[in-house]
Amino acid sequence: MAQGDKKEIISRDQFFEQNRDAARAMGADDALQRDALDVLVQADRHRWIHQTTWFGEPILNLPQDIMAIQDIIWRTRPEYVIEVGVAWGGGMLFEATMLEILGGKKVIGVDIFIPPDLRTRLSQHSLLSQRMELIEGSSTSEETLTHIQNILQGSTNVLVVLDSNHTHEHVLNELRVYAPLVGKGHYLICGDTIIEKLPGQAHGARPWGPGNSPATAAKAFLAENKRFMVDLEIDNRLLYSCHPGGYLLAIA
Ligand SMILES: C[S@@+](CC[C@H](N)C(=O)[O-])C[C@H]1O[C@@H](n2cnc3c(N)ncnc32)[C@H](O)[C@@H]1O
Q: In this predicted model, what pLDDT tens digit does every residue of 105-138 receive, in sequence order?
């Protein structure tokens, strides 16, 4: 911290404490939050959320959220990450990079449709390819869940990212069936809660929208499951996020 030509030395802990206080104030700054949401809504018309890539593969997520997931993986060191909804595979590839560096086991990707060229592309990333396993099927089917449990072998050192069909009913179902896989201190990310705040027409012909979204599902889930809470510290510091109120931490 420069003060005139003198430098005030603060500890790393103090640095983080100052950041936490500042993020809390930012989270409570309604005018700034409104402006940020306005930018997100306007930019959504230009496919902003679709512009991010990891090692060449699209991730349908904002860089802010990818940094948040990076921080979660660093802090919680999951053995497994379950990416529910794979799309182009960039999210899986990013998580596999983290596990490869930090010594985790596998990223399990679940999608109702896995085109052959996605399998081919994800198989061309040398060491990272060995860290990824794809399961084709609906995220909530018994077959898919049994397949996942066979891989986990009882481990609850697990991060789950839910990002598939975004209707209230489907996400609530996913939250209920994936929650038991997540141990204390780990995260269940309810993706795309931002849908609740985007104008109805932004969703085109899709069955979800405000009032029928991951945010309404997360609210219903949190009312019935006291083992999880929203990690507001993450929300506070992101400002731009696809998953506000969706970073759910297992506290028991
Ligand atoms: C938003 S994209 C996933 C984006 C990806 N997580 C990322 O970060 O790049 C949603 C994906 O969910 C898949 N999906 C839709 N319904 C599903 C279901 N019932 N079970 C599993 N996957 C589903 C779609 O095929 C699509 O690829």
A: 999 999 999 999 999 999 999 999 999 999 999 9
Q: Find the mean pLDDT for residues 181-186.
A: 98
CA–CA separation, 200 vs 19, rounded Å?
A: 35
Which region among 57-61, 139-143, 201-205 has the lowest average model confidence (pLDDT)? 201-205
Whether the predicted pLDDT of 248 surpasses 80: yes
With a Cβ cut-off of 6 Å, ligand 1 is lined by 59-61, 83, 85-88, 90-91, 110-113, 138-139, 163-165
pTM for this one?
0.96
Q: What is the CA radius of gyration of the chain?
A: 19
Q: Could you identify the atom of ligand 1 that is nearest to the CA of residue 88?
A: 9
Determine the distance separating the centroid of ligand 1 and the alpha carbon of 25, expressed in angstroms.
34
Mean pLDDT of all residues in 3-28: 90
CATH fold group of domain 11-250: Rossmann fold (3.40.50)
Joined tokens for residue 12: 């790393």
Q: Which residues lie across from 62 on neighbouring strands? A: none
- For residue 200, count CB atoms less than 10 angstroms from its CB and return exposed for 0-12, middle for 13-18, buried for 19 or more: exposed
Distance separating alpha carbons of residues 198 and 8, to the nearest angstrom:
43
Q: Which of 123, 43, 64, 63 minimizes the C-alpha distance to 89?
A: 123
Strand residue runs (E) in 131-204 = 132-136, 158-162, 187-190
Q: What is the CA(167)–ligand 1 centre distance, in A?
A: 12
Residue 105 CA, ligand 1 centroid: distance in Å: 22
